[in-house]
Amino acid sequence: MIDTVILTMQLDKTLVTDPDKFTPSLRWLKESDRGFGARLFTKYTQNINQKYGYYPRLTVTPRWKGYLEIPLKIEFSVPKLLYGNNLDEVSEDDFERVIEVLQSKLKEMGIRVFPEQLRNALVSAVHYSKNIPLSHFVTASWVISVLSKLDVTKRLELNHRHFKNQGHALYFDCGSYQIVIYDKLKDIGKSKRHAVDKEPTSEQLGLFDFIKKNKIPAEILRIEIRLVQKGKLNSLFTQFGYPANPTFKQIFNSEIARKVLHFYWDFIANEKSLFLLKATDQDTLKQVIEFQRLNKRKLSTIETLGIAQIIEYSKTNGLRTLRESLSSFYSDRNWFRQQKYFDLIEKITADKKPYDFVTDIENTLNTLKPYRIENDLIKGEES
């Protein structure tokens, strides 16, 4: 449902019991009579090595706005906070336990806050996520290769850095948010430099070693919607009918998570791309001709050949590549003039069954049942 979150509160609303735990020390806060000087432009952090367990990352950034404002940012992965890994997922019912554990961790880090302050802390960024167990012996890498061919708007940068590295991750990025789709289990085994998850815990690595050693038959596709800018978070919430500037308690909501994940899945699996998510006939030309015969319509020879080629080329290279190739020779407007042919392709492939992974994704997003790695471990032991 939810993974990473960044909470923001004012430091003067908390009790700093050990300022020396920060780098550099926050002890100057108790010596304000000496003036602020360059300390207003200094970032104060606390990031505990994970060999001591999982803790939030704390950042203090003082600034002068006619008065001294000292915001404290608390960044953490919710499932890692509870379970030590983010293969296991949390549910809405876990919220009070999250508050309890977070308050305890902050106390160890020299910050004392009341539970109500954490519940009502403003959210700067949030990553909604879902692990999708894949069925029918489908691999996450193959699913990612299919999804990389969809016609996602050019406003989003398609990042192949990880996709080329054994095909295990795919990024769509526009700055204010990211859509990240990757092979969760393969990602755990990557080095920090190449992994999507830059902070794998020791518990998470232990699970990966156990799965690899015992050859557990698990394939997990991970979808993350990273709302990394407050403006995007607010616009999306108001679009869904929720108040802007949400608190931690307000974002920790399964219905909101479902809406966000569905919204962006529908965004990338748009109508123009639907035929790429279906198993089409091997003889594409024959399929196009048969459609005309059954529906008593007749296209020109060039149109028939062109539609067959669009389907075949897109299946092999992707719609984005097709669009870029045509736009380099014709104008970009010419691409949009071909919409009638994509409408026709949708009709030609309408009776084709979607790939099984499409059903896996849509069913999982509909139910939003928390994934538990132990379920796959039990399946592996039984087999």
In total, the number of domains comes to 2
Q: Termini separation (Å)?
A: 29 Å
Enumerate the strands of the largest sheet in spatial order, edge to edge or round the barrel.
3-4-7-1-9-13-12-11-10
Helix content: 40-55%
Percentage of β-strand residues? 15-25%
Report the order of strands and helices.
EEEEEEEHHEHEHEEEHHEHHHHHHHHHH
| SS element count, helices | 16
Low-pLDDT residue spans: 161-165
Overall pLDDT metric: 87
What class do helices, strands and sheet pairing give?
Answer: alpha+beta
Main β sheet profile = 9 strands, antiparallel
The number of distinct β-strands equals 13
The value of Rg in angstroms is 25 Å
Shape: elongated
What would you say about this model in short?
With 383 residues, the chain is α+β, with helices and mostly antiparallel strands. The protein has 16 helices and 13 strands.
